[in-house]
Design a protein that fits this description.
It is built from 22 helices and 29 strands. The chain is of the alpha+beta class.
Amino acid sequence: MAPLFFLPQQEAQTLAADAGHNFAQRFFTSTKARKGSDTRPKGTRNVSPSPSAQRKRMLQDIFAPTRVTATVGGREILLETGRLANQAQGAVWIQCGGTVVLVTVCSQPLDADRGFFPLTVDYAERMYASGRIPGNFFRREIGRPSDHETLISRLIDRPIRPLFPKKGLREEVQVLANVISADQENLADVLALSGASAAITLSPLPFAGPVAGGRVGRVDGQFVLNPTLAEIERSDVNIVFAATADALTMVEGEARFVPEEVIIAALEWGREQIQPLVQAQNELRRLAGKPKMDFTPPENDPVLEERVQELAKAHGLEAALRIPEKLNRKDARKEVKDKVLEVLQADPAWAENAEALASVPDILAEMEKSLVRARIVNEGTRIDGRDTRSVRPIQIMTGVLPRAHGSAIFRRGETKALVATTLGSASDEQRTDGLNGDVVRRFMLHYNFPPFCVGEVKPVRVSRREIGHGALAEKSLRPVLPPEADFPYTVRVVSETVESNGSSSMAAVCGGCLSLMDAGVPISAPVAGVAMGLIKEGEQYIVLTDILGDEDALGDMDFKIAGTAEGVTGIQMDIKISGLTTEIMRSAMQQAHEGRMHILAEMAKAIAEPRKELSPYAPQHAELFVNPEIIRLIIGPGGKNIKAITTATGASIDIEDSGRVSIFAPTAEALDKAKEMVAYYDQRPEIGRNYLAKVRKVIDIGAIVELLPNVEALVHVSQLDLNRVGQPGDVARLGEDMLVKVIEINGDRIRASRKAVLLEEQGQAWNPEERPARPARPERGDDRPGRGARPERGNKDRGGKSAGRGKRNDKGKN
């Protein structure tokens, strides 16, 4: 019998057709259900299937997966399961055009409750997806994800994490999204988000989804769903979002000074457009979903809960939550918790109940959340005593780092960022591999969150959170940067969070803008950002401006909005409840606009516009335009000349094929020297000017010397010395230098004189009028003056045979 995968094509197609579209539904029926519905005769239930039946079943795995489609934004999106990764608890092939993402979810039980939900989401781009070989040394996808992959992993994680049970699910869950085909038109990030939701929806895990992802752009005033790369370039809005059937759950994106109302309209329009994708996931679940595992959320012991609340109130929990300062409030809360545990451990009713004692911190956390939210709803007063719309006090200092090109300290309440700007040359641009080709970045913003900023001891590393916050701040500031043609520097901003109590990413935006202006970067307008929170109790909701860290943890929303006075440039929203209505989002955007305008006014008091001059420690820049034909001379053989220039000056030099030369040097003196050395190769000789030339060739009538790179001149034997020279080699020696004066330029023919230099040294000035330049030679073909007619040639026939010459017997045989 032939091997399975080498069956004739006709037979394989026949078996696939026989399988039908209902196979996947039968394949995903639970083992328990299959056993209960086994209707085969008793004597045949344990008989192995025939070889042909086995072949047919295996072919069905490949040729007959379960498929559903949804038309979204004018494009068809395919969701498929059953073809690949059938040993995962959920697997989905999601495709749009030629872009395919394979998303899987697996879980395994935990031995003990870790106190948090261990969900891991990893997004990876396989270079073969777009026909590329990785550009790194290993020529393969290495283990550490790129920043781009990390950011998309966060995009997937943020909307799906809140849809799992908040506590009690003792499962470690891993979601993997691999891009296995990329058509460089349909982007994979939103497909991966929807595919992750679909895979979890198919799995036995409890999940309050599905959720679908989409991207909204606006091209020529019209909204576009899931725009292509070309459309994104023309769009003034680029926002990725996630939504359930009822409301938005996540937003992340950037805009070019777009009013808040446009952002709201874009998100509401996008949410409606992706509903077919939500419905398609439900249909796929109906056809091929696995039975959900039994899960009952754990409940606190009501007797213990009542006792803990009684003790917490008696020991001053409410008073502790009214302390404005973060660290003092933290210490007071810990003191209350310690006293409550101390009493319970001394109580015989609870002393031996380890599980009950372990639940006390959770009970206290729920109590704290309830007390803080009730105070805001009932009194309109927040933890630090502010009302719901006030921004914390702001302090700003600029120019705080002596050698940085630009720097600032931005303080808002107990959050403080030290931000520095560094200017570099084109060689400092960041170049990274990507599915759509190499990505070049001339602006980078890096956000650091060291453990000391919150008084903790942790390993120092760059976390996903730091990469995500830095990317948001970078998006927010990028629209105000000058175009490369006007400001060719590479710009890097680093925000060091030195103290944190909420909204440190927005401190990076404000501090980053201030440091850019301090560095003299000519930004088009100042940018500020603010984080908004939400308290929602039933139908009542309250929006909070400039939230604290505790308000982020106890609230229902983290909504970050950055922009100029003209409009929004960056936005990020995470929802901890089922979703966000348009009414709530409009209130949050309006309140955020008020807060942003207040912050911009405070920033203007410190520095109203970019400084007119760059820092003296910043690289000095100049541009030259040279003849493109001499670029090879500037570079030299093997880069010899350009290396000599950079070594001598410390400059960075970038040369374009058009002849544009961009020079970055560490000092003004180095810049002048580099310009002079580059310009040396693009000089034109001038009559009457002296040049230290090198003898390149000695001939009978004189010497050929090189005046300038690729420019040669003839020094006639009569111009080699004051006295008569018998042999040119007596004066001109090959390879030696000779000081000469240019005395004639006739097109490309140049004559020079050593004699004129020697006369000058004796005090006799050389006068070019004493030797007039030769007239240009006339073009051949017309009558040439001065030679007259040549009648002896007459009008002889100059054809095939020489007329009138007769035979020339001296040239050999007739």
